[in-house]
Amino acid sequence: MTMSPQTTQTHFDGVLITIRSDKSYFEVTEAIESKLQRFSITRQMEYMAHKNREGFEAYVTRITAPSNYTIFFDFEQGTAMRLAGIPIESKFYLVGNPVIARGLFQYTGAAGLGAPVRVSVSQHDGEQTRIDVDQPSSFFSQFPEMQGSDVPGRLDHELVGVFEAVA
């Protein structure tokens, strides 16, 4: 017997963290990219293909040093916005640590909605640069099954601290 899909809506209180900086957009993005190393999906796949957990964990330790976090992905959006006449610089990052993320995924696969964490850096012409991120503990509160995880609070402190330091 095939069951029909079930759709639910979960309401939660979200908190947006905005860090403003007098540094230019380019200074902030350069600081982020010099502080956080880039994660290699190709390297990850090599470790997975060889079922090499220890090697993978050692790679994560190396690639996340010294901040404990890495850039999984970035997407430059400002150029397309400027082409449309919107005077803004904008870049989106996915940032995290796959070993730390285990403390989220052990509770629910839906952790993938917020891990890695989404970070937006932008600057409208003539304005301050801003770094915006959903507060991890607030974001993950929408998943009742994650109540036992200490990772969201850890991300609030550590990951937000990384972005405060570069601002």
Task: Summarize this structure briefly.
It comes from Streptomyces acidicola. The chain has one domain (16-166): TT1751-like domain (TATA-Binding Protein), CATH 3.30.310.70.
The whole-angstrom Rg is 18 Å
Known CATH architecture:
2-Layer Sandwich
* Count of the separate structural domains: 1
Fraction of residues in H or I helices: 40-55%
User: Under the CATH scheme, which class?
Assistant: Alpha Beta
Largest sheet: 5 strands, antiparallel
CATH superfamily: TT1751-like domain
Please provide the count of β strands.
5
**Overall mean pLDDT:** 96
How would you sum up the global shape? Answer: globular
The strand order across the widest sheet is 1-5-4-3-2
**What is the succession of H and E elements?**
EHHHEHEHEEHH
Strand content: 15-25%
The CATH topology label is TATA-Binding Protein
Counted by DSSP, the helix tally is: 7
InterPro entries: DUF302, TT1751-like_sf
Protein name: DUF302 domain-containing protein
Mind explaining what this structure looks like?
The chain is of the alpha+beta class and 167 residues long. It has one domain (16-166): TATA-Binding Protein, CATH 3.30.310.70. Helix content is 40%, strand content 22%. It has a 5-stranded antiparallel β-sheet with strand order 1-5-4-3-2. Strand 4 and strand 5 (129-134) form a beta hairpin. The termini are far apart. The mean pLDDT is 96.
